[in-house]
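Reopening this one. Same input as before:
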Amino acid sequence: MTSTSAAGREIAAEQAYVDTVHERLEASADVARALVTEGMARGHVGNEGGLVERDAMVFQATRRLTALNAAHDGLVFGRLDMREGDRRYVGRIGVRDADREVMVIDWRAPAAAVFYQATAAEPAGVVRRRVLRCSGATVVGVEDDLLDADHAPDDMVVVGEGALLASLSRARDSTMHSVVATIQKEQDDAIRAPARGATIIGGGPGTGKTVVALHRAAYLLYNDRRRFESGGVLVVGPSSVFMSYIERVLPSLGETSVTLRSLGQVVDGFTAQHHDEPVAAAAKGSARMLRVLRRVASEPLPGAPDHLRYFYKDDVLVLDAKRLAGLRRHLLNQGTRNRVVPRVPAVLADALWQQVRGERALEQGREGFLEQIVDDPRFVDFVESWWPEVDAVQLWTLLPQTITEHAHGAFPRAELDALRASWADGEPSIEDVPIVDELRYLVGEVPPAIDEDADVPHQLMSFERRERDDDADRRRATRSIEDDSFAHVLVDEAQDLSPMQWRMLGRRGRRSSWTIVGDPAQSSWPRPEEAERARSEALDGLPEHVFRLSTNYRNSAEIYELAASVARHAIPGADLAAAVRRTGEEPHHVRVAPDQLVASVREHAEKRLAEVEGTVAVVAPRTLLHRLRDELADTLVTHERLRVLDGLDTKGLEFDAVVVAEPDAIVGESEAGWRTFYVVLTRATQALTTVGTTADWLEHVG
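Same output, byte for byte:
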């Protein structure tokens, strides 16, 4: 065992080197700040070239400055002592000295790969691997792995119990941290997988799937920045709570150009925070909804006219419902609803002209007829009422009154009732977002001008549609569908995606490579086969690189043994990882009378807050959630480390301690109740308590 004085000397030596690196980093930051100042000055040149040069210089210098600032915390985290005698330092970004000699290797660089890949069985030339634990720019500890004892000098000092095990006991706070210093070999293999195709990262709870995927995004940007930064990297997670939890990881790795969105934020201008009740959520997410939306996008709006009677000279021209329906089909065969908006006047005018028989009318000819009709308010009003430009959000707001008409038997009465109830307050749910996105693509966008080959008479080329008075009040999905695609799409908790959500993400990944993270055993979507088909369509035949992470670093073995018993009871084929540490503390189960439930939950939450340094979660069924939040309001204010969540919102999160309220109610909440309960149990890293008025679940798994 290393003496305290020897460890202190090692820390002091590493501190001296880290200080030198930080001095060099500050010098680089000074250069970047000077370039920003110089770039802004060039904007005063007074010509367009000066402005372009200014913008380019300021953009590049600001981006570099942002990366340098983000890297300060734990800038240098690793050191390799090689068999040849040289040493290499590894950090969040690469740093060179004034002579361009490497001081720190960027963790994403090929030269740094051995830091993660070397093992005692295959040391790859590494004698000692050292992890530096830093607080800001201060080295607070070192942890060593001796990989090749046969080639270690006699005076080599080996400190600590190993970086990985030391990191596992760290208290959790409200955000996820980079694990760049403690990445293991099987994780590094997934991070450095080929950029093309789809990288699939699987494994049980606590195996590091999420953080590995985020490190992969940083790795891809480092290796092909032009492609991935210009095309964009989209990271999608299950909830806004989850996105807040992971938002610091990529900036801490020097990457600030990635778009992070929850499933409720994927469509610009239309966001949602809450989930629907299970029946409505399953209906909205199913492939059956697509058939309904296709009808919604093609059928007339409620109240649209179904008859046109027009007087011209000696003729009465009539377009009845049957004829208008035929014209509608004709137009939709030419493009999406909004795309053909400029063609509508010509199609209607042509259908009317075909009925002209009177001599006076024929003398004027088709040209004269079109000259008159294009300025006739009766015709203009009909066109705008029969074929208005439509917005996806507008069609979504009409669904409560049109869903029965358009369903055509797709949903039984219970699901229709649940759908209408979900839309009763007019507030969108997370499950509504892919519906709006689907409608965006089904109705399309109005082209800026009539195509030259559109065969529209010149009299109708200037036909202008009036502005609607309610445009300002409508919530629009503002982003153009042409701008939706990204160069890379990273999807976390992918096992929960519905078919409609896969379609939404598939449109963002039309020309993308993918990273897909998930564990089928944790799925909350009740029909996995249907979702799998939608996933295959989204990937569109891309080659897949599959990785399985096998070690549970999050949960103590005592906690995971309980969770695994739940999985073995209710989830056939669950991928059960191996937990690597024991704490000696078994999960604690409490059964109480109904009138004691809330008080008992409070008691055990406060007990856990006193026992652990990090975060504590109270997890409850949705029916109990609001009551618990109200009853625990003062505790939530006093203890910022406490969260009160439902099972779905715990996806991807972890806490030092978890108190589960009414486990049987969580199990009975939906078709996927047992899976959700499995997820909840695996959120705790150190301590777990269940409090319930019943304990049926224990009899099943005991």
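So the earlier flakiness isn't reproducible anymore. For the record, The first strand starts at residue 76 and ends at 82.
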